[in-house]
Design brief:
189 residues, mainly alpha, 2 domains, binds iron/sulfur cluster, DNA primase large subunit
Length: 189
């Protein structure tokens, strides 16, 4: 196995330290609204599967949030299936893989959606606020915004990684789960 399993009790801490901005945003919105629309559930759900959240933990995690909004019964009826489906336990039993940056960047979030890549889909103001919450300082922020203006979203994300970890990152980000596992390696080394 490439990295350790993540359990529910660690998830808030690792979200803060090691989720890329796209997943931090979905995670925070889910905690805040106790709900995510389909695109967000897919993007975050498959990412969490990729970080090693087991099916039972995933069901408990989503249920704890959605129950506060739609009730436990409706969660079991309408939402649990698609989580099991993501883990290949329903339907064609395909083991779905987490989305790459390319797929996320080319998605088209609508009103009320929180999926997508913030470097591409956030307004400049919201992106600056989110980066500053992540701990990117103002000098580094300008370098990130410069990449965004040139539509180099993955390079912008790579610069964010470097800024937060205080270390160069030559590989470049091309997958949210790569961001996560390399961040965890960094903190554990
Ligand atoms: Fe997420 Fe990739 Fe965008 Fe970074 S570049 S925020 S990992 S989609």
């Amino acid at each position: 196995k490439e990295f350790a399993e993540v359990s529910i009790k660690d998830i808030d801490q690792v979200a803060k330290s090691s989720f890329p901005l796209c997943m931090r945003h979905l995670f925070e919105k889910l905690r805040e609204d106790h709900h995510l629309k389909h695109g967000g559930r897919m993007q975050l759900g498959l990412f969490l599967k990729g970080v090693g959240l087991k099916l039972d933990d995933a069901l408990a995690f989503w249920k704890a949030e959605f129950s506060q909004k739609v009730g436990a019964e409706r969660f079991d009826k309408e939402y649990a299936y698609s989580i099991r489906h993501n883990y290949g336990r329903e339907g064609k039993r395909t083991d779905y893989t987490p989305y790459s940056c390319q797929k996320i960047i080319s998605s088209t979030p609508g009103v009320g959606d929180h999926h997508g890549c913030p470097y591409r889909h956030f307004s400049e103001e919201n992106l600056r606020a989110a980066l500053s919450r992540m701990g990117v300082n103002s000098g580094e922020m300008e370098n990130v915004m410069d990449k965004v203006r040139n539509r180099h979203y993955q390079l912008a994300c790579t610069l964010t990684f470097e800024s937060i970890h205080g270390s160069s990152y030559d590989a470049g980000i091309n997958h949210p789960n790569q961001y996560f596992s390399d961040s965890q390696k960094f903190f554990k080394s």
